[in-house]
């Protein structure tokens, strides 16, 4: 898979950066022939992953840095969102629909990532941090029938 | 002129949907209205509040609507 | 000057990233109360600095990385654009209006940066690279009369 373009960034763990990351990744992803709908889906997935890093990974420590990388290939975009925060003890459980360690939250972040991206992988160690790696395929001119259902 | 057209078509980092174009138009209107009301150029926060959208969406719509930021850059890149 | 938010990024030395960097920085800067006009000016300055890193700094080596950082304070935004490319032997001469080492170009990039930003500093060593540091003040809701002419 030949890399067409690569972006790495890091930003402070602040709620305002959720909206920033969403717009920045969509602008970068527009270099591929994603549909507008694909871009909207990508934005939701990025928002959820970045919000998790800020809210759950770091709690409230705004000086901590969230790392995000995006790689474009002819096949699509791979996005990594990483924090060096609290980590997740049981990843499988965390990814279950409606599971949240915070009673105020809906526990649908990972569900959205999985429904809007073609691949989602979560690597985490308690006390060390979490890395979410997601891939979204670009269907460009492919006929609708060959597009996977999300 | 052909180059500028090409720029508008190919080099725009923001894909333009109809709703983004509408937002761009509403930003243009809000900008004029707010300038009249407060007697100075409005800030991005004031425009976002007026339209009930995020600051980042204001930026996206501005980028989508605009002519090349640097025509010179386009022609000579 | 208390830092409100900080962003660091790096991306490949590709022309498509000029437009990406412009949008990303404007989206980040929108967290401060810049006017829409300020944001337009910021975008032009960022475009010119990033285009210089890609075109002059690296020539055509797309795998080289351009680094960009942005720091928000209550006073405004500081932006750094850095390359590890060719460097500039005579910075003062390079910054003169209409000076260009490329007869096809207009030599107005630094002029635009200086007219649209409140401070521009260029540090460069031949063979090592170039760093452009620029600052734009946020005038927020200041009345028109007290805004400096650019
Ligand atoms: N980056 C992270 N660091 C630590 N824990 C995380 C992280 N991301 C997710 N989690 C854990 O996984 C749970 C489920 O995440 P999610 O599906 O996004 O739901 P929600 O954010 O609404 O709780 C969270 O409640 C949290 O316990
Ligand atoms: N990042 C850089 N690396 C090497 N040389 C540079 C860089 N930025 C600018 N220069 C030099 O400074 C000159 C003037 O730059 P500029 O004012 O942007 O005009 P132009 O890009 O049209 O040549 C360029 O022609 C180039 O020789
Ligand atoms: Mg979540
Ligand atoms: Mg230039």
TrEMBL record, chains A, C:
Which residues belong to any copy of the Histidine kinase/HSP90-like ATPase domain? 37-140
InterPro entries to which the protein is assigned, alphabetical: Anti-sigma-factor_SerPK, Anti-sigma_F, HATPase_C_sf, HATPase_dom
GO molecular-function terms, A-Z: ATP binding; protein serine/threonine kinase activity; sigma factor antagonist activity
Keyword Cytoplasm assigned to the entry: answer is no
Q: Which SUPFAM superfamilies does this entry report, sorted A to Z?
A: ATPase domain of HSP90 chaperone/DNA topoisomerase II/histidine kinase
| Superkingdom of origin | Bacteria
Kindly state which keywords UniProt assigns to this record, in alphabetical order. Answer: ATP-binding, Kinase, Nucleotide-binding, Serine/threonine-protein kinase, Sporulation, Transferase
Cite the EC number.
Answer: 2.7.11.1
This enzyme catalyses: L-threonyl-[protein] + ATP = O-phospho-L-threonyl-[protein] + ADP + H(+); L-seryl-[protein] + ATP = O-phospho-L-seryl-[protein] + ADP + H(+)
Q: What Pfam families does this protein map onto?
A: HATPase_c_2
A GO BP term here is: sporulation resulting in formation of a cellular spore
Residue ranges crossing the lipid bilayer per the database entry = none
Give the signal peptide as a residue range, or say none if absent.
none
Which family is annotated? Answer: Belongs to the anti-sigma-factor family.
The record's HAMAP family line, in alphabetical order, gives: Anti_sigma_F (MF_00637)
Q: What is this protein called?
A: Anti-sigma F factor
- The record lists the organism as Desulfofundulus thermobenzoicus
For this protein's source organism, the top of the classification is:
Bacteria, Bacillati, Bacillota, Clostridia, Eubacteriales
